[in-house]
Write a structure and sequence with these properties.
Layout: H1 6-20, E1 33-37, E2 43-47, E3 64-67, H2 85-91, E4 96-100, H3 113-132, E5 143-148, H4 150-161, E6 166-172, H5 184-191, H6 199-206, E7 208-209, H7 211-220, H8 223-235, H9 240-253, E8 259-260, H10 261-273, H11 276-279, E9 281-284, E10 287-290, E11 298-302, H12 311-315, H13 317-320, E12 327-331, H14 343-363
Helix pairs in contact: 3-4, 6-10
Length: about 375
């Protein structure tokens, strides 16, 4: 039987206090950044590893605009120093920008996909390009879009809705065939006798999907992790690094915002029930988004372990984006968040993205700005 030293006992007691009554194992650390533009649901930030306003160090590189999901905070791209997508991109010599939609409240219930695809994201693209090029954007200059989960859906809708200076799209753990993404097939079968009526009406009455419900549902997708957490904490009280990684995920899950009613209704009716996204043509009010018209290189990621985006629905993009000159798909076996930010992402996802963007750089005729 191992006898713990006083130092080990103090470490365990300190970690237990920090996780229960204290302020946490470690403080929140964010990568240095500057706010390029502020506004309701459209705050734009530029990140770099040292906070400096530096140009891309990679020849031919374009700015990278990271689009978060609606019901997950923009912090998904900057979870912690070791799992920060923006820090990694900056260290690779790129200039990452993050669009932050902020909180969603009852007053935002009228926001739909078209507000993001036709207004908010195109404006962010223009602002990022203007900032990157110092106000003198050359002809042919474009931007690389990067979306995780529903952020990928928003990126594709933006690219298909109207002409935009988009150079490429990276989409991580994005379901592009909602009609076949569990549990939607079951919900479709149950509501088919009434033409899909029900879910959208209920969401409309609630004014959207409230943040607490989103947080509960997200945690439920990894119920085994939640059940094992007390045992995990007790077994690792002396492993501060493991507890710190757990804490990062827990903090992230506690900050999930909600869904606006109109957008959530469209997600059900258009994407899930009617399967319009998977078929390639999405009807948003008077606007028809043709996803098959997207003509830029696309990089997709999927996992058999992802509870929120099945491997098959992510891989469907190989068939869907027929107008793209190049669609690549990579399998990284990890969780929904782990595909983006975590040990698996660092080891497998990020290198594939680096190689994809490097290939786009090589094909680009526009050089980065000199500052």
């Amino acid at each position: 039987m191992n006898v713990l030293s006083m130092a080990q006992l103090r470490e365990r007691a300190g970690n237990l206090w920090a996780l229960t009554l204290g302020d946490g194992i470690r403080p929140v650390e964010r990568t240095d950044h500057v706010v390029v533009a502020e506004g309701l649901h459209r705050t734009l930030r530029r990140f770099s590893s040292d906070g400096a306003r530096s140009a891309a160090a990679v020849p031919g590189a374009a700015p990278v605009l990271l689009v978060p999901p609606i019901a997950a905070p923009a912090a998904c791209y900057d979870l912690s120093p070791e799992y920060s997508v923006v820090r990694h991109l900056a260290e690779q010599g790129r200039v990452p920008y993050v669009l932050d939609f902020g909180e969603m409240s009852y007053s935002d219930r009228g926001l739909g996909f078209e507000d993001f695809a036709l207004d908010i994201i195109p404006q962010a693209i223009a602002r990022a390009l203007d900032d990157f090029w110092g106000g003198e954007v050359p002809d042919g200059a474009g931007i690389d879009l990067f979306g995780w989960s529903l952020g990928g859906v928003l990126s594709f809708l933006t690219a298909g809705a109207s002409p935009q200076p988009i150079r490429s799209i990276v989409s991580v753990a994005t379901s592009v065939d909602y009609a076949n993404q569990p549990p939607y097939p079951v919900a479709r079968a149950l509501t088919k006798p009434v033409g899909g009526f029900g879910p959208a009406a209920l969401i409309g009455l609630m004014g959207g999907v409230p943040a607490p419900l989103v947080q509960v549902v997200y945690r439920a997708t990894s119920w085994d992790r939640e059940l094992k957490k007390p045992k995990f904490v007790l077994e690792n009280l002396g492993n501060t690094e493991k507890l710190a990684r757990m804490e990062v995920i827990d903090r992230f899950q506690r900050t999930f915002p909600g869904y606006p009613a109109r957008l959530a209704g469209q997600l059900w009716e258009r994407l899930a029930y009617r399967g319009e996204f998977g078929a390639g043509e999405v009807h948003l009010g008077k606007h028809v988004v043709d996803l098959r018209s997207i003509d830029v290189p696309i990089q997709l990621f999927g996992s058999h372990r992802d509870a929120l985006c099945s491997w098959e629905t992510a891989r469907h993009g190989l068939e869907l984006f027929s107008g793209s000159p190049r669609v690549e798909f990579a399998t990284v076996e990890s969780s929904h968040l782990g595909l983006l930010a975590g040990p698996d992402a660092v080891r497998e996802t990020w290198p594939v993205i680096d190689a994809f963007l490097a290939s786009v750089d090589a094909d680009s005729a526009v050089s980065g700005p000199a500052r």
